[in-house]
């Protein structure tokens, strides 16, 4: 039989196992063609066997979405704790070797280990000094305006304060990963020199989630390192799509709880309106210490209690341990406040007053 493949390179397009055609003849089975269609372009990328991509693009997108929920919750927790707006958002998610990750970090920096039962291994969390010291300054009463970021390792006192801050991020991390499974993330040891911490071999593949942390005019980075051999048992769960909806709903509820907890620590002014009346400007000018102003409201009627300028409760006057006090009797709606003082609108046209000594 004559050779139908004069070009020796064309033999790379077939395999030796023939396939049967419609005419009963045996033809080589084609794997791919070296001849491209017209205007067809093929993307060619270099592949580094030292840095194998063990996690697919879909799994990387799942990890990024998962940690976006963590970023929102952690930012809300820090905002309530520091009583200022702190924004945390995901910047990127990429794969690299552990040695490359360590090489990208500053020294000294804030480097922490995270234990996550039942995972067999540890995560790494690094926060840049560019945002750590402004947070510490804010925590200790500063305004971070003229703050100088020192190029030195953190002191023991600063490390303990940073630990308090990072511990507030463990619950948001647990909540974010709860869409995959129940994990118990806890903050472990802390170091200022990341080169001293070798949790995996240098050539081990890790997933690095990069965050941007912004507080006022200060901005810094935060990086979460996930070794592949640690998250390998749950990588298949990253392919699932049904947990996105549940995680979004749970994260919204968590954010709401974080905001409510932060607002619960804010101080509010409480005012008690005993009664309302009106006097002329001349009468106001003549008032002296010891004068009495009378109203048409009986002393037995409930008084109005406002919180933050909004009517919220009714109360009764009294004494407690030698001090004047108001006991809350009932809660009210804002529109009901007008009915509590029927003489207030009439008194605007004038009501009696009495001067006394």
What overall geometry do the principal axes of the alpha carbons give?
A: elongated
Unreliable sequence segments = 1-16, 342-357
Q: SSE string, helix = H, strand = E? A: EEHEHEEHHHEEEHHEHEEEH
Going across the major beta sheet, what is the strand order?
3-7-8-5-4-6
Number of domains: 2
The CATH level-2 architecture of the largest domain is identified as 3-Layer(aba) Sandwich
Fraction in beta strands: 25-35%
Sequence-ordered SSE layout with sheet pairings:
Layout: E1 14-20, E2 26-30, H1 57-82, E3 86-97, H2 98-103, E4 110-117, E5 122-127, H3 129-139, H4 156-167, H5 170-177, E6 184-191, E7 205-215, E8 218-227, H6 228-231, H7 243-264, E9 270-273, H8 281-286, E10 303-307, E11 310-320, E12 323-331, H9 343-347
Antiparallel strand pairs: 1-2, 3-7, 4-5, 4-6, 5-8, 7-8, 9-10, 10-11, 11-12
Helix pairs in contact: 1-5, 1-7
Give an account of the 3D structure.
The protein has 357 residues and is of the alpha+beta class. The chain folds into 2 domains: 57-264, CheC-like (Chemotaxis protein chec); 270-347, SpoA-like (Surface presentation of antigens (SPOA)). It has 9 helices and 12 strands. It has helices at residues 57-82, 98-103, 129-139, 156-167, 170-177, 228-231, 243-264, 281-286, 343-347, and strands at residues 14-20, 26-30, 86-97, 110-117, 122-127, 184-191, 205-215, 218-227, 270-273, 303-307, 310-320, 323-331. A 6-stranded antiparallel sheet has the order 3-7-8-5-4-6. A 4-stranded antiparallel sheet has the order 9-10-11-12, with no helix packed on it. It has a two-stranded antiparallel ribbon with strand order 1-2. Helix 1 (57-82) packs antiparallel against helix 5. The longest helix is centred in the first third of the chain and has 26 residues, at 57-82. The model is unreliable at 1-16 and 342-357 (pLDDT under 50).
């Amino acid at each position: 039989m004559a050779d139908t493949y004069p070009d020796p390179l064309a033999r790379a397009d077939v395999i030796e196992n023939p396939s049967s055609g419609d005419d009963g003849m045996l033809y080589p089975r084609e794997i791919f063609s070296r001849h491209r269609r017209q205007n067809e372009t093929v993307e060619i990328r270099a592949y580094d066997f030292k840095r194998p991509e063990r996690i697919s693009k879909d799994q990387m997108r799942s990890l990024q979405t998962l940690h976006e929920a963590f970023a929102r919750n952690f930012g809300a927790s820090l905002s309530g704790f520091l009583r200022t707006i702190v924004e945390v958002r995901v910047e990127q998610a990429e794969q690299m070797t552990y040695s490359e990750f360590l090489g990208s970090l500053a020294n000294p920096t804030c480097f922490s280990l995270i234990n996550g039962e039942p995972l067999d291994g540890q995560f790494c969390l690094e926060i840049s000094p560019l945002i750590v010291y402004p947070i510490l300054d804010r925590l200790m009463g500063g305004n971070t305006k003229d703050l100088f970021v020192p190029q030195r390792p953190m002191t023991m006192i600063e490390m303990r304060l940073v630990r308090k801050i990072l511990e507030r991020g463990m619950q948001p991390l647990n909540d974010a990963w709860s869409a995959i499974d129940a994990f118990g993330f806890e903050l472990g040891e802390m170091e200022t020199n990341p080169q001293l911490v070798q949790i995996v071999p240098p050539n081990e593949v890790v997933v690095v989630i990069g965050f941007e942390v912004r507080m006022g005019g200060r901005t810094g980075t935060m990086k979460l390192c996930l070794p592949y051999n640690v998250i390998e048992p749950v990588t298949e769960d990253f392919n699932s799509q049904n947990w996105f909806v549940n995680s979004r709903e749970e994260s919204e509820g968590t954010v709401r709880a974080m905001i409510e907890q932060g607002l619960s620590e804010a101080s509010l002014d409480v005012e008690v309106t005993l009664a309302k009346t009106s006097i002329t400007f001349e009468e106001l000018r003549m008032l002296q210490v010891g004068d009495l102003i009378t109203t048409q409201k009986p002393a037995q009627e409930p008084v109005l209690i406002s919180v933050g300028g909004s009517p919220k409760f009714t109360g009764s006057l009294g004494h407690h341990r030698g001090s004047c006090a108001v006991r809350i009797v009932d809660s009210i709606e804002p529109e009901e406040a007008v009915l509590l003082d029927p003489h207030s609108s009439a008194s605007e046209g004038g009501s009696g007053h009495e001067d006394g000594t």
